[in-house]
Structure formats: C-alpha cells, structure tokens
Amino acid sequence: MKKPAVFIDRDGTINEQMGYINHISRFMLLPGTGEAIRLLNEHGYLVIIVSNQSGVARGYFPMNLVNEVHEHMMVLLERDNARVDGIFFCPHYPKGKLPEYSRACECRKPKTGLIRMACRDFDIDMANSYVIGDRCTDMEMARKADLKGILVKTGYGLGDLEYVFPDLTFEPFHVVDDLLYAAEWIVKKNSGIQELRN
C-alpha cells in the first residue's frame, strides 16, 4: 500500500544552518526536530531527507563525513523515538574541485532527482505528500514535483521569504515557524485534529 511522504530538507530545517557542515561537531539539531519527526512517524508518513551537499564536489569535506553526519543525526533522533525512513543527497556541483562530483546533474535541488530516487525505493502516495524546507529551491522543487511546499522560517527561511520570494513567480503553499509547526500543520490538515498544541 502506498504511503504519503514528507520530504524534508536538512541544513536549516532539521539542524542549525551553519553554512557547510564540514565537521561533525557543527551538526546540531534544531529544537523540536525529534518531536516533529516522531509526530510524522506516528501518523503514517514516510520521513525522507532530501539535501544538497555540494561541499563534497567543492572539496570542503569528504563523502564519508556526510554519511557520518547522517549516522549521528539518526542516533540523536532515536533519543526522541523518531525515525528517518530514507536519506537522499546530492554531492554534485558543476564547477566543483573534485572531477568525479563536478557535473550538472538531475539530483541537485531545485531539480527533482532526489524525489525520483525516493520514489524508486518507496511506494509513495505523491498526491498526499509534502516538502518542508528553508529555501526557495526547496519550494521550487516541490512545485516541479507537484507537491505542496511548506517553508520554515528557520535557517534561510525568513530571509528568503522577505527578500527572495517577492521576485519569484511562485510562493510556498504554507509558511510556518519551524519543523514542528510544519509537522503539526500536516497532521492537523489530514486528520481533522483541531488543536495539537496548548
């Protein structure tokens, strides 16, 4: 049976936006992240991370650090009984330093390659799925994939909302303060729950 998914950006949405996470010590979950993901887990949503990690192509950090960070993230989330079902990331950049990753690709957001990868691995109910992120590129990816995009004001979200979106031809489907509010909004919209937060 198909399940709806929530495709979640990583940096600035799940963890503090610090530019490039070039050391594991720089990875810090934003408040409420574990609770948000657990809520989505409990209500039957696949939780899938979709992230641009061009620092690999740029030579800022090795591929194994990205994997190490994701393993660390999973451990932190497990403390809140939260689970990520899949992680898909793009290590490419057209003008990168490392030839093996320096190319134009179909997986770098706002292109939809990461979502297509997830659809190959999971039986996803796309009609009831969402994208959550802090950048206009996340919202553009959502639009291209015919998904509802929810912009969070963490990370680059507030700045993009104020300075970038006014010049674009599209806007987020919904805007919230953070990932927890986004998860609550999704659950409320799709379950009829009127109040999730006191």
Automatic annotation (TrEMBL):
UniProt GO MF annotations: metal ion binding; phosphatase activity
Entry EC no(s): 3.1.3.-
Enzyme category, top tier: hydrolase
Active site per the UniProt annotation: 9, 11
Organism field: Candidatus Desulfacyla euxinica
UniProt keywords, alphabetically: Carbohydrate metabolism, Cytoplasm, Hydrolase, Magnesium, Metal-binding, Zinc
Transmembrane portions of the chain: none
Xref: InterPro entries: HAD-like_sf, HAD-SF_hydro_IIIA, HAD_sf, Heptose_bisP_phosphatase, Histidinol-phos
Cofactor: Mg(2+); Zn(2+)
UniProt subcellular location: Cytoplasm
Keyword 4Fe-4S: no
UniProt site positions, description: Contributes to substrate recognition: 108
Binding site residues for Zn(2+): 90, 92, 105, 107
Keyword Magnesium appears in the UniProt entry: yes
Matching SUPFAM superfamilies: HAD-like (SSF56784)
Lineage of the organism: Bacteria, Deltaproteobacteria, Candidatus Desulfacyla
Name of the protein: D,D-heptose 1,7-bisphosphate phosphatase
Binding site for Mg(2+): 9, 11, 134
Any Gene Ontology biological process: carbohydrate metabolic process
